[in-house]
Amino acid sequence: MALKIGIVGMGGIGMNHANCYEQDELAELVAVCDIVKERADNAAEQLGVKAYYSLRDMIEGEPDLDIVDVSTGGNENGSWHYEPVMQSLEYGKHVLVEKPLSNDIREGREMVAKAEEKDLYLGCNLNHYFTPTAENAKRYMEGGHVGELIYCLHKMGFAGGEQTYAPQNAPRVKGFPYFHVKAFLSHPFSVMRYFCGDITHVQAFLDRPSFRKRSGDLMLSINSIHVKFVSGCTGYLLSQRGDTTFGLGGWWSVEVGGTRGTFCIENCIEKITFWPAPGTENAAKPEDLDVGSSSGPIVTESGISDFGQTFPRRIHAFLEDVTNKVPRDLLRASGRDALAALEYTWAAMESHEQGGILVRPHPLPTLHGDPRTQNN
């Protein structure tokens, strides 16, 4: 039986999510909600569902709702997440919330704790690793072809430069120096953690180019962040918001190197390249390689160039997990995963404010496990 869905927040993201649910056999979209009546009414008319103008009214008016999709935004793209998430959980509804989990770390921690208390699913739209390329990368890792992790490099940023720059005057952006950090870094941090595990140390240097400074733009749009993972693997995240144009790998690339091989995903969903280490399967013999050369790459094109395809793939995964009643600890892109990215973001801000000191992120909530799914 399809899960009944209600969406709160019917801007562009909310409509994107609605279209994903409309096309997914595991979902039945039954209601939309927005405090802006016109927006709710327009969405309801397009989608053929009922409109509500308060979340409480939607939940009480649709008692069979299984999931509330929180697609609100707010300051730094996250200040309107806390109240609808907490209210939905209090009513006993599973929740999928847009990223970032919140623009306030305390609120993020409370949301995750509330889902734990209520024994409900809290997922976050960390859609960047719900891709064929990421699945292929995981197969390389799980098949032993990458080996012990050595490094992780992630670049993510919109193409731009001083000729295309225009100050952003939207209230959710203007005057918030950490807008880019809070609104953007959940994605690359979540990807790095997905492949390499928890981060134990963070050191960050944040800045903005001269053309932003001249215009009075406070946004710290250049983020250079060095990290260490619990495994001992080291990593580097370079993020920017239209201040330059990345070269190799495009606007989004992640490269993970291990003792048996290295992979690089380009443009998120488009292509993955794998380089086997010399002496391993499908690799050249070490004695056949010149100094400084490596084995030939294995290139796999996904055949997908539309980044928008990450949304239905991620949403379908959440619907699958709820339908299959997976243990909450195994929920993909969970609230806890989103909180991890938020903790690393706050560690990066602290490092920057303290002149680039090394910071240990706040510990994540302990995973207790579900006694209903574990043998004694």
Following the backbone from N to C, one meets helices and strands in this order, namely EHEHEHEHEHEHEHHEHEEEEEEHH
> What's the helical proportion of residues?
25-40%
Side by side, the strands of the main sheet go 8-9-10-7-11-12-13-14
**Number of DSSP helices?**
11
Q: Number of folding domains?
A: 2
Rg, alpha carbons: 21 Å
Examine the coordinates and then state which fold CATH places here, giving the name of the CATH topology of the largest domain. Dihydrodipicolinate Reductase, domain 2
CATH architectural name of the largest domain: 2-Layer Sandwich
CATH superfamily of the largest domain: Dihydrodipicolinate Reductase, domain 2
**What is the number of beta strands?**
14
Structural class of the helices, strands and pairings?
Answer: alpha/beta
Topology:
Elements (H helix, E strand, L loop, with lengths): L2 E6 L3 H11 L4 E7 L3 H11 L2 E3 L2 H7 L5 E4 L11 H9 L3 E4 L7 H14 L3 E3 L7 H11 L6 E11 L19 H6 L1 H11 L2 E9 L2 H6 L6 E8 L4 E11 L7 E7 L2 E6 L4 E6 L21 E4 L8 H14 L11 H19 L23
Parallel strand pairs: 1-2, 1-4, 2-3, 4-5, 5-6, 7-10
Antiparallel strand pairs: 7-11, 8-9, 9-10, 11-12, 12-13, 13-14
Helix pairs in contact: 1-10, 4-5, 5-11, 8-11
